[in-house]
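User: Reviewer 2 asked us to show a designed sequence for the structure in our supplementary figure. I'm pasting the structure tokens here. Could you produce the per-position amino acids so we can include them in the response letter?
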């Protein structure tokens, strides 16, 4: 099973066992719905969502079989995960991009080493030195099957010399 982190239970709400989740997960509408399985805590305890509602900046859920605050207090401050296979989406997750090779035209720039998320879009960290917004204005093509991302050629977007110079220095030192 491949788990995907979707947020944290930050508190309870009221006395009827409702949980307050802080999540910036891109596909909330596919996850926060009745009868969807979630996994809570480091031991990934399986639970099923009974109800969902949005409240301010929080995603509020109740779990099947829990109707009292005292029963759900144990989940406070725990991470929440889903099984990737349960997620039905068109396209890919940001996490699927980590490790893909990044090119400008046919020139290798590096690999995606991390994803930085913000409220509007994600940012690809490429070989720890370059960052590219994950937006259609910057990304020409993503091919998960070929492990390849093609970035549009935009002057100043990528420090192409960094990767070339770093590799050259590494090879030179090895000789």
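Assistant: Here is a per-position design you can include in the supplement:
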């Amino acid at each position: 099973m491949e788990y995907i982190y979707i947020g944290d239970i930050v508190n309870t709400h009221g006395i009827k066992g409702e949980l307050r989740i802080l999540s910036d997960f891109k596909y909330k509408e596919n996850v926060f719905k009745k009868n969807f399985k979630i996994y809570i805590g480091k031991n990934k305890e399986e639970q099923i969502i009974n109800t969902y509602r949005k409240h301010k900046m929080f995603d509020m859920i109740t779990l099947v079989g829990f109707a009292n605050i005292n029963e759900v207090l144990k989940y406070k401050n725990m991470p929440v995960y889903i099984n990737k296979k349960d997620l039905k989406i068109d396209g890919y997750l940001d996490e699927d991009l980590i490790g893909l090779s990044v090119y400008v035209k046919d020139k290798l720039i590096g690999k995606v080493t991390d994803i930085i998320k913000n409220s509007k879009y994600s940012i690809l960290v490429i070989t720890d030195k370059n960052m590219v917004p994950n937006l259609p204005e910057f990304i020409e093509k993503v091919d998960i099957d070929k492990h390849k991302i093609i970035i549009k050629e935009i002057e100043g977007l990528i420090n192409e010399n960094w990767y070339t110079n770093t590799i050259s220095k590494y090879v030179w030192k090895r000789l």
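For the response letter, you might also mention the following. Residues 160-174 form the longest helix (15 residues). The helical segments are 28-31, 69-72, 160-174.
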